Amino acid sequence: MATEKNLKIYPSALKGLVWLKRAGFKLVLISNQSGVGRGFFTAQTVKKIHDRLQKIFTKRNARLDGFYFCPHLPDAGCKCRKPNPGLAEMAASQLHLDLKKSYVVGDQKRDLELAANIGARGVLVLTGAGKEALKGIGKNSHVSRDLFTAAKWIIENEK
After folding, report:
1. Sign of torsion over alpha carbons 136, 142, 148, 149
2. What is the pTM for the complete model shown?
3. Which of 4, 68, 133, 158 gives a 20 to 30 Å CA spacing to 43?
């Protein structure tokens, strides 16, 4: 089980976050954490992991603007579990984001589906489980090798 002490962060991911932050983007992490609903770990464990990530990212000038997670089981029918838009809408409301001008970057088909559901651009990264999700990409999605190349593309796309 992942804990806040054994986090592994791809160096290219951290570099990509730094580039996006320097370019003025707000950075938000949205995740499904059904392990909470299954009793594998607590919401407090997720919070400790988020706190640890924030500490690492802040040291590198890539502080995230928000962390949001869904603790529910996949069949719970909640509005916050990706690809449903609940958490993205909450982040948009709290952080004054325009979802239609946003990007959703992830390595899962549900990340691209979330992008479609909120009118954002989806970016599939091939790190993590991304190669398995290639079959599910939509017309409004972009594919990048990793978060760093995704960040470069996003910044260029905004020019």
Report:
1. positive
2. 0.91
3. 133
